[in-house]
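Protocol step 4 of 6: structure prediction from sequence.
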Amino acid sequence: MRSDDGGEHWREVSGNLPSDFGFPIDVHAHEPETVFVIPITSDSEHFPPEGKLRVYRSRTGGDEWEPLTKGLPQENCFVNIFRDAMCVDQMDPCGIYFGTTGGQVYASNDGGESWNAIVHDLPSVYSVEVQTLP
């Protein structure tokens, strides 16, 4: 849901997302209409829909969404991404980072166009924070 008037009115913004449920959501540091979300199934399992790990990006404040999948597992991916396990940095283009309950941390340094697993064997990742230096 999104409100543009301080909460007086709300509108649906899940549009073409494969699920209207998902914990991790973040906003681009320099483009407030650019939003990133990782949809999760709302059943008791909480996995990416269809076992495909996808970050979705909206450049329109949630009106339209595009899947960003390059470098992410697209089959048999049954991990969860917790609410605090995704963040963006202050760089331009912005870097995006998220961790999974499978112990992987993924990073994109090109605004989500492509992804790399930068860590593989951690315990479940509950939170990801990033600090960039000038």
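Step 5 (inspection) to follow. The beta strands are 25-27, 35-37, 55-58, 66-68, 86-88, 96-99, 105-108, 116-119.
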